[in-house]
Amino acid sequence: MPSTRHFSDASSSVRDDLSTILAREIEEEEANVNVEMPEELAEIKADIERNWRVVESTEPGNMIVKLFRKEAGGIGGAKVMIQFNCQDREDEELDEGQGMDELASGVRFEAVLTKAGRGLVFSCFTIDTEVHIESVSLRAADDIDAEDDGTFYRGPEMHELEGDLQQALGDFIREEYDLDADFAAFLSMYADYKEQVEYMNWLKTVKSFVH
Questions:
Q1: How far is CA 153 from the centre of its chain?
Q2: Residue 22: pLDDT above 90?
Q3: What phi and psi, each to the nearest 5 degrees, are found at residue 66?
Q4: Where are the alpha helices (DSSP H) in the chain?
Q5: Cα 11 from chain centre
Q6: Who wins on pLDDT, 10 or 160?
Q7: How does pLDDT run across 78-111, given as a tens digit for each residue?
Q8: Are 125 and 106 contacting, i.e. CB atoms less than 8 angstroms apart?
């Protein structure tokens, strides 16, 4: 029968190996990656915050970020809220010519317009510096944050609509609420920044847990 000491020594060795590798990763990240907000992102964020209030959860590891429009706008003074998960990414190949393709990384988000107890939900994503719409649905305001269990009509897919209606919906959400190139860049850059911060926290927490 194998001795308990043998198993204990093996377990300690495996744990030490993992701890060493985690320490190496932490050291490399600290040497090569600045977890402080990049200056360019800070400038874009300051510009965004002229019209939006950016709210991030204080719960460690929570990747949800919400933006609330400071002034009600359009369609009868609807309240506007943007919400996105920093890990809910959208990647698309961009044709760079000469047979070379490049992956453009964007972020999926919802633009929610509410008034009179109803919510108009634009399911969107960014690619490069452009905002695209996937679908538009209607919900009761109280159900905006409810999990999608198939109960709600999700609205038509954008590609199913007439071209001029697709264009009009896109122009409305982009121009009425300033979802422009800076906004798209902010979402993508902020998601990258938040993921880097949380990855470093993850490394340190796992190392502490297994130490």
A1: 24
A2: yes
A3: -125, 145
A4: 4-32, 39-48, 163-176, 181-210
A5: 38
A6: 160
A7: 889 999 999 988 776 555 554 444 445 789 999 9
A8: yes
What is the separation, in whole angstroms, between the first and last Cα of the chain? 29
Write the single-letter amino acid at 208.
S
Neighbours of 153 (CB within 10 A): 9
pTM of the model: 0.79
Cα→Cα distances 120→74, 107, 111, 176, Å:
12, 20, 8, 14
Identity of the residue numbered 36: E
Instruction: List, for residues 125-159, the tens digit of each pLDDT value.
Output: 998 888 999 999 888 877 766 666 667 777 888 88
Q: What is d(CA 182, CA 76) in angstroms, rounded to the nearest whole number?
A: 26
**Residue 107 CB neighbour total at 10 angstroms:** 24
- Which of residues 103 and 206 earns the better pLDDT score? 206
Distance CA 199, CA 176 (A): 36
DSSP annotation string for 38-100: PHHHHHHHHHHTTTEEEEE--STT--EEEEEESS-BTTTTBEEEEEEEEEEEEEEEEE-STT-
Contact of 172 with 116, CB cutoff 8 Å: no
